[in-house]
Amino acid sequence: xxxxxxxxxxxxxxxxxxxxxxxxxxxxxxxxxxxxxxxxxxxxxxxxxxxxxxxxxxxxxxxxxxxxxxxxxxxxxxxxxxxxxxxxxxxxxxxxxxxxxxxxxxxxxxxxxxxxxxxxxxxxxxxxxxxxxxxxxxxxxxxxxxxxxxxxxxxxxxxxxxxxxxxxxxxxxxxxxxxxxxxxxxxxxxxxxxxxxxxxxxxxxxxxxxxxxxxxxxxxxxxxxxxxxxxxxxxxxxxxxxxxxxxxxxxxxxxxxxxxxxxxxxxxxxxxxxxxxxxxxxxxxxxxxxxxxxx
Length: 295
Prior knowledge:
Arc Repressor Mutant, subunit A, D-Maltodextrin-Binding Protein, domain 2, 2 domains, seven-stranded mixed sheet, two-stranded antiparallel ribbon, 10 helices
C-alpha cells in the first residue's frame, strides 16, 4: 500500500485533470501518470478514463475512491494524534463552503483560527448545496457548511436562520413597500436560481401557488445580482447573499417567516481527526459569539 499513490490518485479525481493535480502537488504530469498507472497495476483494475471534459472515474474507481480517501483521512488522524500526545497541534482540514458563507464568514473565521492554531492547515472546497452533501459523504471534505434539512446522515449543528429577501432594481414600484407579499411577484419578470437556494425559492413560490414569470435561470448569486442590477428582473436570495449588493439594487424582506437554515456538518464527530474537531468547535463558538455581538 502506497499512501503517496493514494494521495496522487485522490487529487487527480478531485481536480479531474492530471495536469492540475500535478500543479497542486508540485509534481510533473509524467510523475502523476506513472503513479496512477502503478496503482492500477497494483490493483489489477482500470480506475480512470479520459474524456474531453477531463479525467473521470470508472465504475471500479467509483467503488474504491471512498475507501482510498478513508485511508488518507485515517493516516492524517494518526499524525495528528501523535502530535497531540507530544503536546502540539498540527494537521490539515478541508472545509466545504458556498459563496455567501465564503464571503460573509470565512475570512474572519480563518483569520482568528489561524492565530489560535497556526499549526493547522486549512483548505477550502467550493460547491453548491447538493455538491456539499456529496463531498461530505464521499470524504472529499472533512466538514462543510450546508443548508438544512439535509438528506445526509451527518453530525451537524444549525448556525443561523438566513432570511429570504426580494431583490429588485432601484425605483422599482415594489421598492416603496417595507415588506413584499409573495403574491406580488406573480407577474414580475423573475430571475430564478438553479442551484444553492433554488429549493427554498421554489418552496416559497409553491406555497402561494405561484408560477413565476421566469425570464432567466442562473447559477451563482453574483450572476443573479448582475441581472437584477441591469433591470432584467427581480429575484429572491438569502440575506447573507445580498449583504454587499450594489447601490442600484434594493432589497426588501418577504411578508411572513421565510428563511434558510445554514448548518455546519461533519460526517462523524467521533471518528473525526483532532484538527477537524478543533475547527468544528471553533466555528460553532465563533458564529455564536458573532451573533451575540452583531445580531
